[in-house]
Specification:
It is a single chain. By secondary structure, the chain is of the alpha/beta class. The chain has 2 domains: 4-122 and 301-314, Rossmann fold (3-Layer(aba) Sandwich); 126-283 and 322-333, Dihydrodipicolinate Reductase, domain 2, CATH 3.30.360.10. The protein is built from 10 helices and 14 strands. It has helices at 15-24, 38-45, 57-64, 78-85, 102-115, 129-139, 179-195, 245-248, 294-308, 316-333; strands spanning 4-9, 28-34, 52-54, 68-71, 91-95, 118-122, 147-155, 198-206, 217-224, 229-235, 251-256, 259-263, 269-273, 279-281. The strands form 2 sheets. Strands 8-9-10-7-11-12-13-14 form an 8-stranded mixed sheet. It has a 6-stranded parallel sheet with strand order 3-2-1-4-5-6, sandwiched between helices. Residues 8-121 form the Gfo/Idh/MocA-like oxidoreductase N-terminal domain. Its EC number is 1.1.1.312. It comes from Bythopirellula polymerisocia.
Length: 350
């Protein structure tokens, strides 16, 4: 089988996970890496066999004639890059956030549609192995057929220092929308994947660390078309009580009509039938790559869909539904408030 060829544009922090996954996908060959920072390109090429370096995507597309483009850049650049891809490749996969705002996301989707460009959003959380397993359990009716509630609690502990985010993703500090736009969107998509479409949402958001611009904590309540309820309780400031917060990014509970599924921070899944004790559910997952090797699984899905002309799970057109929920959440939250209280203002206890 002739390998699919691709060009990666963007060689920052997260690109290394993409490149690692492409290298392990045997029927894919990355033929070019494009970034304005030559030092980043040099570092990226060290992960590949024979890719060419570029600083301009148009030149990369002209010289390599790839089958697809992998966009691994900040959201402000995505529209221009999708426009550059149009007419030159038949498919692209684009990192999230898809765009800096909802209207630009719509423009990106329309640009791709008008150009006949198949566009998948690299929304990798739903491809984490624990969520694929939980979805399988739900389909099998192991804890019933009706979801009552879904709740996710996230404590990252990477945002409380004065130099918060500088080492890994410094642009986080200046984003006017942070928690939901950058991180919470993953969980909203997971909620849709596990429990169906969301029809109503309300958010309460605040800023705990005053060195950043956007929000870093909040609670989002939502109602699903099925009647189920959802709660996202997220906070990048406080720390979790498990060693690797970047494995599952938190803990999930799904209450159904015949029991409960729980996901723990170390990837463990348990089942608790009504009237019974909680019991471990045994399954296996890889700790390679990022968060259960979900980048590999996401890109494997992309390749499979290209090979077999199947619809992407996170096709950009469908992904607009996730972004619409996030947008509505921000609208209900209003202006981002600073830390709720200082220690001296705390309510006195009896």
């Amino acid at each position: 089988m002739k390998p699919l060829t691709g060009v990666c544009v963007g060689a920052g922090y997260f690109a290394s996970f993409h490149l690692d996954a492409w290298v392990r996908l045997r029927d894919v060959r990355i033929v070019g890496v494009c970034d304005r920072d030559n030092s980043r390109v040099v570092a990226a090429l060290a992960q590949l066999d024979s890719a060419q370096p570029f600083s301009d995507l148009a030149q990369a597309l002209e010289e390599t004639q790839p089958d697809f483009v992998d966009i691994i850049t900040p959201p402000e650049s995505h529209l221009a890059l999708v426009q550059a891809c149009s007419g030159h490749v038949s498919a692209a996969i684009c990192q999230k956030p898809l765009a800096p705002d909802f209207s630009t996301a719509v423009e990106i989707v329309e640009t791709a549609r008008n150009a006949g460009l198949r566009l998948m959003v690299h929304e990798n959380f739903r491809f984490q192995p624990w969520y694929r397993e939980i979805k399988r359990l739900l389909k099998a009716g192991v804890v019933g057929r009706q979801v009552h509630q879904i709740a996710f609690r996230m404590r990252m502990g990477d945002g409380w220092h004065e130099d918060a985010y500088l080492e890994r993703q410094p642009y986080f500090r200046k984003m006017p929308r942070l928690l939901l736009h950058e991180t919470g969107v993953h969980l909203i998509d997971v909620f849709r994947f596990l429990a169906g479409e969301i029809v109503d949402v309300h958010a309460y958001l605040c800023r705990l660390n005053q060195v950043i611009v956007g929000e870093d904590a909040g609670v989002v309540a939502c109602r699903f078309k099925s009647g189920a309820l959802g709660i996202l309780d997220a906070n990048r400031y406080n720390e979790p009580n498990y060693p690797n917060p970047r494995l599952t990014f938190g803990e999930l509970t799904m209450d159904c009509d015949d029991g409960t599924i729980r996901l723990y921070g170390d990837g463990r899944i348990t089942l608790q039938q009504l009237g019974s004790e909680e019991e471990p559910h045994h399954y296996s997952f890889s700790d390679a790559g990022f968060a259960g090797d979900c980048v590999y699984s996401t890109q494997a899905h992309f390749v499979d869909c290209l090979r077999n002309d199947r619809e992407f799970e996170t096709d950009a057109s469908d992904y607009l539904r996730t972004l619409e929920i996030v947008e509505r959440a921000y609208e209900t939250a209003g202006p981002i408030a600073s830390a709720p209280v200082s220690p001296g203002d705390a309510v006195e206890r009896e």
